[in-house]
């Protein structure tokens, strides 16, 4: 048995398809510039047509949004800045392969060094495109995963974004990779595709051959090659139980989220881009509780996204939400989220610095583009606008006033804008939680951002492993802040949601229900398991549980109370 990193859930049992990528050997000798330039240019055109062909083949099984990765790769391959740098090195005497490797590695290193998931993904894209380009320079062939036409478990050194995008879910039962961590591209894709996968499984490439029988358990992170009859029987039973459970959850897909004693809450999704709407619909979410628009800004490499580009993205999300509410959060940049085309002045504590609504209220030109795009899109669905990092009443009032003025401006231009847009705020700074009853006089709703609320309350950087123990969602101090926020909203007849990670935490659901939370926003994959918990609880009993939890001293005591409640 081999051990790797568990990524998701599910068990796959099947035949090994070993993905053997060609080995790249770089020639570092002096090259003939004219000849090498021709090799590079031919390889680059072949790379572009290869990606176009893969996209064409993959379009038979993938949705439009999933195909977007190939557009990103095409853009990368056609980026003159990239090819010019390589060409310059070749003109200086490097071989085509050496120059390509050097320039690509430099760019990959730059993106990987950024402490941000989005840029790490961009690094994976460059790796992917440059690998294809190098293979074409060296005359090597990359295996074609779209050609697989039988059920297999893919075993690979590493899965690139284009490998995963080529997987046909009908035949790919799961995959195992030799390298990669929990946040590697392959692991993230496995979760979003709903395919069982184990990554970082050292020894798997040497330990199996094409056609071997293989079992992988994505929850435990274990892999068995050529299992015994007994193992096969045990895992087949476990797989069938898992599939049955998954099917049982599907029954809840179109059901409302109502407790045993008839109290209804809303379970909605957190999304980062229009393509995440697939997951929203597949998992029966009742709308979007947080659309993090900063990814739209991070995707753009040379300038802020235009009003039209933003309008298109918001319109798609609103239309696909089929009349459900979509809460769009205005730009939350700064802190750990940087932009390649915008220079932030260095600060000692960027998390406490010039970011989010602070930046938007200071740079109204940037804010205006987004607000106009949002208002224009508002007629395509049920839009709610939410401001991040609100600390004072004046910040909220100024931001809201700016939206209302922009609306008038658009109307004067003859542009249609919905009259039913809710304008609310994130409660993620303790000051706004404490003053929630006053904020509720102006805000139509609150959404509690526990990721930041906990970091600021505990004074514990959410990126730091060393102080990760202070991330204590069930600490009574955090619960009291949450209670103040919910009560504050209700005192003015407003609704209160939660879109931090705690909103989808099964251990928190009973307490949050008891505290009166109206809307729970989470990653789409958490919707159905959370609906099962909510529909099995009694609101009145959870109110008693919450009252006890608020009187506890430690998170451990609250955890114990919740465990008892869930067992009952
Ligand atoms: C939060 O702070 O809880 C939140 C949802 O926002 P983000 O994680 O994007 O900071
Ligand atoms: Mg936040």
Topology:
Blueprint lengths: L1 E2 L1 E2 L4 E9 L13 H26 L9 H10 L2 H12 L4 H17 L4 H22 L13 E5 L4 H6 L5 E6 L7 H9 L3 E3 L4 H4 L5 E5 L4 E4 L3 H22 L6 E2 L5 E8 L5 H6 L5 E5 L1 H6 L7 H14 L4 E5 L26 H7 L1 H14 L4 E6 L5 H20 L9 E6 L2 H5 L1 H4 L5 E4 L1 H9 L17 H16 L3 E4 L10 H7 L3 E4 L4 H9 L3 H12 L4 H13 L1
Parallel strand pairs: 3-4, 4-5, 5-6, 10-11, 10-17, 11-12, 12-13, 13-14, 14-15, 15-16, 16-17
Antiparallel strand pairs: 1-8, 2-6, 3-7, 7-8, 9-10
Helix pairs in contact: 1-2, 1-5, 2-5, 3-4, 4-5, 12-14, 13-14, 14-15, 20-22, 22-23
The protein binds phosphoenolpyruvate (PEP) and magnesium ion.
Give a description of the structure.
This protein folds into three domains: 2-21 and 144-249, Phosphohistidine domain (Glucose Oxidase, domain 1), CATH 3.50.30.10; 33-138, PtsI, HPr-binding domain (Enzyme I, Chain A, domain 2); 253-567, TIM Barrel (Alpha-Beta Barrel). Helices cover 48% and strands 14% of the residues. It is built from 23 helices and 17 strands. It has helices at 33-58, 68-77, 80-91, 96-112, 117-138, 161-166, 185-193, 204-207, 229-250, 277-282, 294-299, 307-320, 356-362, 364-377, 393-412, 430-434, 436-439, 450-458, 476-491, 509-515, 527-535, 539-550, 555-567; strands at 2-3, 5-6, 11-19, 152-156, 172-177, 197-199, 213-217, 222-225, 257-258, 264-271, 288-292, 325-329, 382-387, 422-427, 445-448, 495-498, 519-522. The chain has an eight-stranded mixed β-sheet with strand order 1-8-7-3-4-5-6-2. It has an eight-stranded parallel beta barrel with strand order 10-11-12-13-14-15-16-17, surrounded by four helices. Strand 16 (495-498), helix 20 and strand 17 (519-522) form a beta-alpha-beta unit. Helix 1 (33-58) crosses helix 5 (117-138) and helix 12 runs parallel beside helix 14. The protein is globular, with a radius of gyration of 26 Å. Bound molecules: phosphoenolpyruvate and magnesium ion. Phosphoenolpyruvate (PEP) is lined by residues 290, 292, 332, 428, 449-452, 499-500.
């Amino acid at each position: 048995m081999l051990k790797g990193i568990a990524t998701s859930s599910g068990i796959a049992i099947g035949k090994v398809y070993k993905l053997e990528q060609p080995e790249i050997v770089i020639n570092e000798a002096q090259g003939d510039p004219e000849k090498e330039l021709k090799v590079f240019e031919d390889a680059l055109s072949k790379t572009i047509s290869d990606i176009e062909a893969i996209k064409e083949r993959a379009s038979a099984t993938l949705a439009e949004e999933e195909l977007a990765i190939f557009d990103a790769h095409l853009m990368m391959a056609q980026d003159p800045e990239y090819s010019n740098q390589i060409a310059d090195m070749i003109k200086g005497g490097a071989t085509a392969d050496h120059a390509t490797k050097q320039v690509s590695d430099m760019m990959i290193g730059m993106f990987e060094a950024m402490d941000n998931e989005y840029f790490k993904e961009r690094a994976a894209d460059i790796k992917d495109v440059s690998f294809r380009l190098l293979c074409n320079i060296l005359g090597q062939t990359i295996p074609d995963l779209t050609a697989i036409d039988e059920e297999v478990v893919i075993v690979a050194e590493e899965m690139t974004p284009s490998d995963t995008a080529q997987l046909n879910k009908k035949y790919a039962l799961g995959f195992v990779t030799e390298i990669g961590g929990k946040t590697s591209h392959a692991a993230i894709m496995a979760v979003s595709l709903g395919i069982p996968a184990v990554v970082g499984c050292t020894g798997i490439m040497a330990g199996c051959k094409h056609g071997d029988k293989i079992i992988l358990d994505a929850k435990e992170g274990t892999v068995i090659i050529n299992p015994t009859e007994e193992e096969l029987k045990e895992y087949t039973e476990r797989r069938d139980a898992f599939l049955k459970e998954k099917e049982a959850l599907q029954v809840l897909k179109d059901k409302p989220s109502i407790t045993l004693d008839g109290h209804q809450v809303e379970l909605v999704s957190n999304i980062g881009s229009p393509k995440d709407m697939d997951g929203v619909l597949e998992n029966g979410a009742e709308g979007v509780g947080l659309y993090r628009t900063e990814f739209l800004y991070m995707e753009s490499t040379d300038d802020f996204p235009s009003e039209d580009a933003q309008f298109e993205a918001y319109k798609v999300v609103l239309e696909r939400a089929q009349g459900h509410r979509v809460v769009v959060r205005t730009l939350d940049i700064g802190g750990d989220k940087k932009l390649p085309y915008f220079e932030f002045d260095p600060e000692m504590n960027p998390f406490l610095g010039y970011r989010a609504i602070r930046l938007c209220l200071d740079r109204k030109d940037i804010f205006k583009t987004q607000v106009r795009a949002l208002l224009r899109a508002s007629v395509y669905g049920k839009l709610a606008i939410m401001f991040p990092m609100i600390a004072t009443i004046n910040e909220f009032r100024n931001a809201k006033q700016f939206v209302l003025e922009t609306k008038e401006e658009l109307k004067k231009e003859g542009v249609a804008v919905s009259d039913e847009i809710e304008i609310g705020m994130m409660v993620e700074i303790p000051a706004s939680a404490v003053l929630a009853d006053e904020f509720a006089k102006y805000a139509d709703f609150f959404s509690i951002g526990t990721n930041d609320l906990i970091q600021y309350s505990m004074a514990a950087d959410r990126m730091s492993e060393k102080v990760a123990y202070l991330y204590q969602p069930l600490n009574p101090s955090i619960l009291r802040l949450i209670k103040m926020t919910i009560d504050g909203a209700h005192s003015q007849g407003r609704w209160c949601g939660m879109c931090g990670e705690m909103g989808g935490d099964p251990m928190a659901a009973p307490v949050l229900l008891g505290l009166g939370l109206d809307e729970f926003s989470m990653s789409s994959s958490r919707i159905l398991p959370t609906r099962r918990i909510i529909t099995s609880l009694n609101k009145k009993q959870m109110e008693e549980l919450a009252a006890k939890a608020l009187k506890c001293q430690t998170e451990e005591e609250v955890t114990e109370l919740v465990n008892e409640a869930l067992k009952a």
